[in-house]
């Protein structure tokens, strides 16, 4: 069974690169500070607030917003929320990095990945020029959700196996038709139109640390399609070891 992949190709930079970029305006480098100070700086860049301020925020959340000054507690809570929402991350130091990953995913998942444009570029294989037999992705079919369609899907479909067999036959028929068109002299750029959505696509994906963290945060969310959640996890396994402190600061646990 063909699986999605995210494989390391190359990278530039590390956590020290982020710190040095941030301190450039002061003319100092990471060596002038302790590892703990450098870590605190990375957290500040990512959160937009200092560690001390984070502690105060958490304390405020624990205490709550009961008014002691004749001000409605909801007004206090909303102001607190607005203050948090408007905190600006200092994102540019994270952008002085680069990671290249070899990706493979079925067409609809690739399309979701390509929606992430800021800080990312891709070069994709083209069926106009390659003639290898396309691979297909075989999913585990899930049931339609009982509630809002925005929830994506439910658990494993009770007829999963028979649907999977039918899907496999359908995809193989499309691939056979594609290869038949090629043999009959149809232009590859048109023959590819019969390929099923389950066809796998390979591409090189390069971007900065912040861009990949943004992709991970959005696509690892429980509301995202399961297949792209799985792909986001594969991306994490590539990027996190390269920038462990920065990745931890930029992403949701």
Question: Can you describe this structure?
Answer:
The chain is 47% helix and 12% strand. The protein has a four-stranded antiparallel sheet. By secondary structure, it is an alpha+beta fold.
Name its key features:
flat; 253 residues; 11 helices; alpha+beta; 47% helix; 4-stranded antiparallel β-sheet; 12% strand
Q: Going across the major beta sheet, what is the strand order?
A: 1-2-4-3
Rg, rounded, reads: 24 Å
Strand content: 5-15%
List the helices and strands in order.
Answer: EHHHHHEHEHHEHHH
Distance between the termini: 30 Å
Secondary structure class reads alpha+beta
Shape: flat
User: What is the oligomeric state here?
Assistant: single chain
Major sheet attributes: 4 strands, antiparallel
Mean of all residue-level pLDDT scores: 89
Number of strands: 4
* Poorly predicted spans: none
Count of alpha/pi helices: 11
Helical coverage, percent range = 40-55%
Please describe the topology of this protein.
Layout: E1 5-12, H1 15-23, H2 35-47, H3 51-63, H4 73-85, H5 92-95, E2 98-106, H6 107-114, E3 120-124, H7 160-183, H8 188-191, E4 200-207, H9 209-219, H10 226-239, H11 244-250
Antiparallel strand pairs: 1-2, 2-4, 3-4
Condensed summary:
Helix content is about 45%, strand content about 10%.
């Amino acid at each position: 069974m063909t699986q999605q992949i995210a494989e390391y190709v190359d990278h530039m930079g590390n956590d020290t690169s982020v710190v040095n970029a941030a301190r450039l305006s002061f003319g100092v480098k990471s060596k002038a500070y302790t590892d703990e100070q450098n870590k605190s700086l990375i957290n500040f860049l990512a959160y937009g607030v200092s560690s001390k301020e984070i502690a105060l925020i958490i304390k405020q959340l624990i205490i709550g917003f009961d008014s002691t000054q004749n001000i409605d507690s909801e007004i206090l809570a909303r102001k607190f929320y607005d203050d948090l929402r408007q905190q600006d991350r200092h994102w540019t130091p994270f952008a002085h990095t680069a990671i290249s990953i070899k990706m493979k995913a079925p067409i609809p998942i690739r399309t979701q990945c390509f929606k992430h444009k800021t800080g990312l570029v891709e070069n994709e294989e083209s069926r106009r020029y390659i003639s290898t037999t396309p691979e297909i992705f075989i999913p585990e079919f899930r049931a339609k959700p009982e509630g809002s369609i925005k929830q994506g899907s439910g658990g494993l479909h009770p007829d999963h196996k028979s649907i999977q067999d039918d899907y496999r036959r359908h995809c193989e028929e499309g691939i056979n038709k594609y290869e038949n068109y090629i043999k009959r002299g149809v232009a590859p750029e048109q023959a590819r139109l019969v390929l099923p959505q389950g066809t796998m696509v390979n591409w090189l994906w390069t971007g900065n640390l912040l861009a990949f963290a943004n992709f991970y945060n959005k696509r690892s969310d429980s509301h995202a399609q399961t297949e792209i959640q799985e792909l986001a996890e594969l991306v994490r396994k590539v990027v996190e070891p390269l920038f462990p402190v920065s990745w931890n600061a930029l992403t949701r646990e």
